[in-house]
Specification:
There is one protein chain. The chain is mainly α. The chain has 2 domains: 1-32; 41-77, no CATH class. It is built from 2 helices and no strands. The chain has helices spanning 8-32, 44-57. The chain is elongated and about 90 Å long. It is a single-pass membrane protein. InterPro entries: NADH_Ub_cplx-1_asu_su-1.
Length: 89
Amino acid sequence: MPVPFEALIPFGLLTVMFAVTGTGMSAARRITNDGKPTRHTLDMWEERMMERDQRLTGSLRGQSTEPIAPKKFATNSIWQTENVTRTFA
C-alpha cells in the first residue's frame, strides 16, 4: 500500500525540528563548556578539581599552566567561614 504524499510533509517538518533542537542543545552545552564536550560520571575528585580550576581561572573547564597560584587564590577559599567572637564573663 503506497504512502500518500501528504504524510511526508509533516514527517519532514518533525524530522527537521528534532534535528534543529538537538543541534541547538549540543551547541549550548559546548558553549557553556568552553567548546569542549560535556563531562560524564564525575567523581568527588574531579568535582573538587573543577572547583579549584574555577577559582584559579574563572572557568570550570579552564586550566592554568602557571607553577605558582595567583595571590587572590589564597583568599577565595571554597570553605565558608563565619566570624566567631566570644565574650567571656
